[in-house]
Amino acid sequence: MKILVCITHVPDTTSKISFTDGNTKFDKTGVQYIIGPYDDYALARAVELKEQHGGSITVLNVGEAETEPTIRKALAIGADEAIRVNAFPSDAFFVAKQIASVAKEGAYDLILMGRESIDFNGGQVHSMVGELMGLPSVSPVMVLDIEGSTAKIQREIEGGKEFMELDMPFIAGCQEPIAEWKIPNMRGIMSARSKPLQVVDPTDDGVQADVEVFELPPAKEAVKLVDPENLDELVNLLKNEAKVL
Amino acid sequence: MEAVANKSTLKGGEFLIKETSAEEVFIPEEFSEEQKMMAAATQDFIDKEITPNRDRIDNMEEGLMPSLMEKAGELGLLGVSVPEAYGGLGMNFNTGMLMADIIASSGSFSTAYGAHTGIGTLPILYYGTEEQKQKYIPKLATGEWKACYCLTEPDAGSDANSGKTKAKLSDDGKHYIINGQKMWISNAGFADLFIVFAKIDDDKNLTAFIVEKEYGGITMNDEERKLGIKGSSTRQVFFNDCKVPVENMLSERENGFKIAVNVLNVGRIKLGCGVINGCKSIASEATNYANERKQFGVSISSFGAIQTKLANMAAKTYAVESASYRAGQNIDDAIEALIGEGMDPSKAKLKALEQFSIECAIIKIHGSEVLDYCVDEGVQVYGGMGFSEEAPMARAYRDARITRIYEGTNEINRMLIVGMMLKRAMKGELDLLGPAMAVGKELTAIPSFEQPDLSAPLAEEKEVLKKLKKSALMVAGKAAETFGPKLNDEQEILMHIADMLIEIYAAESTILRTEKLMNLYGEDGSKLYQNMCKLYFHEAVQKIKNHGDEAVACFTEGDELKVMLMGMKRFTKSTPVNTRNLRRAIADVMIRENKFPYSLYS
Question: Which ipTM was obtained for this model?
Answer without folding.
Answer: 0.87
